Amino acid sequence: MYALISSQKIQLPPGTVVRMLGSWEDYRALQDSRGDASIPRIKYRVEEVLLMSPLPKHGRDAHLVAGIVTALLDAQNRNYEAFTPITMELPEQGGIEPDYCFYIDNWQGVVGRDRLNWGIDPWPDLAIEIDVTNYTDVNDYLLYRLPEVWLCRRSRLAIYRLQDNEYRLQETSPYFPGIDLSALFEQCVRAAGERGTGAATRELRRQIAART
């Protein structure tokens, strides 16, 4: 497959990342060209547009991490809302598309909503990013002030928490106190590689139930 980027069509081979100078209008035009599809992912920084066509590992790991989050939240008997795909935007300033996002503290603000208005509705509490192609920079989320971002790179999980206007690497998450999430993620990645994602998620839920 060859790469093609135009106002009429976008076609990128899997694993391709494209960075180019561009305005907010260029970014919106590329979104229109993509139509209702969620691929490629499109990101906007001031005067820069980035496009990424994910590899299969991207989606598989995103599903696995989301499964870990939902299993832990269900064990806490907590309500939440989750969205994927989703585009978060601040006009003329930025646009970003996390692989998954969760509303945990602010779930009531978006429950039952089919569309979100970023000028009115709350930002997600947690964003999940799978970085297979060096497309992701956690600092891109500073504009949106999400409380927490999880970055999965090379089968390792890094937890970033917003503190004093910067994202700082943390050992744990306040949403799941006392849990070694990095070790849990590595365990699930190994299990998924050997027995499949479904088996890994079911095994995790059994382990959680045994501890409670």
UniProtKB/TrEMBL annotation:
Domain Putative restriction endonuclease stretches: 24-186
InterPro entries with a match to the protein in the record: Nuclease_put_TT1808, Restrct_endonuc-II-like, Uma2
Name of the protein in its database record: Glr3200 protein
Native source species: Gloeobacter violaceus (strain ATCC 29082 / PCC 7421)
